[in-house]
Amino acid sequence: MPRPRPALLTLAYLAFISLGLPDAVLGVAWPSLRATFGLSQAAMGAILGTAAVAYFISGLLAGRLMRAMNLGLLLALSTGSVALGLMGYSTVPRFVLLLAAACFIGFGSGAIDSALNNYAAQNFGPKHMAWLHAAYSVGAALGPVLMTALLARGAGWRTGYAVLAGVLGGLALTFLLMRRLWEAPAGTPGQAPPGAGPTASALEAVRRPRVWLQVFTFFLYTGVEVTAGQWSFTVLTEGRGMHTAAAGTCVSLYWGSLLVGRVLSGFVVEHIGPVRMLRGSTTLGVVGTLLFAIPAVPPALGLSLLGLALAPIFPALMSETPRRVGLEVSAHAVGFQVSAATAGVAAVPSLAGIIAERWGLQLIAPYMLGVAVLLAVLHGVLSAVADRPRLSR
How far is CA 374 from the centre of its chain? Predict the structure, then answer.
C-alpha cells in the first residue's frame, strides 16, 4: 500500500477528531438543556434515539451515496449536515425542533463515519486506521471539555453548540475546497481509486455470508464496549457499594485505556498483523469481563484490561473489511457495519437495563461476559471463513 500524502492524512485525522467532537457533549449540556425546555430525565432517550435512527439509516444508504458522488463532496455535505444540526441545537425554540436537528446530526455523522472508514480501510492501512480511531477518541474527549469550560464561564449550552457548529462548518468548507485530494489514483495494482464507491450493488453485498458475519461482529463489539462504559459505574456504586469517587476512577480508567490501547495498537499491528491482533483482543476481552464479573478482583484491573483489549477491535475490523468481504462491496459492507454498530450501542446496553430491573444489578457483569464470549466465538468463525486461505499460503 503506497504511503498516504501528508496533506490528505492530516485532513483525515482532523476529520476523525471533528467527528468525535459532538458525540459526548450531550451528557454535559443535558442539565441546562433539560431546564431550558422543562423536560423529564427520560427525554434524553428521545434525542439519542432520534439521532441513532438517522445514523442507522445513513449507514445503510452510505454505499449508494459513495457510488453517486465524489467522496470529498459527500464528506462536505455530510459534515455540513452535522454543522446545521448543531446550529439548530443552539437556536431552536422548541424541543420538537431540536429532535428535527438531531436527525441532521445523525444522518450526517453516519455518512461521514461510513465514508471515512471505507476510504481509510482501502488506502491507509491498519496502523493509521488505529490512530484515526484514537483521534476520534480525542475529539470525543475534547467536546465535553469545551462545553464544560463554556458553561463554567456562564456562556450557556447554546453557545457551546454554536461553537461546535462553527468548527464543523469550517471542516465542511475545508472538505469542499480540498475535495479533489480524495480523487488521486491509487498506486497499488488492482486497488480501487481512493474514495471510489462500490462497484457492486448492495444486494450483492447482503448475499455474502462474510458481510453478515462482519455485521454481527460489529453489533456485539459496540454492545460490550458501551455496556461496560455506561453500566460499570452503577454496578460498582449501587450493586457493590463502592464509593462514588473510586467508581468514577474505575470508569475513567476504562475509557482512558481505550484511547491508550488504540495508540499503542498502531505501533504493534503492522508487526503482528490485524488478524492475530483481533484474535488476541477478543480473547483478552473475555478475560477482562471475567475479572470484572468477580467481585473479589479489583474492578479497576478488569475494566482497564477490558479497555485495552477492546481498543484495537473496531479499527482492525474496519481495515480488514475490503479483504474479507471483497473490495467491490466493501463500501456497502462498511455502511452496514456502521449501522450494526449503532444498533449494538442501543440494543445491548438497553437489554442490560432490563436485566438489572428484573433480576438485579449483579447480573450485568455476567451478561457482559456472555456478550464478550459471543464476540470472541463469532470472530473465530469469521476468521476461519475469511482468513484461512491467506494464512495457508
Answer: 20
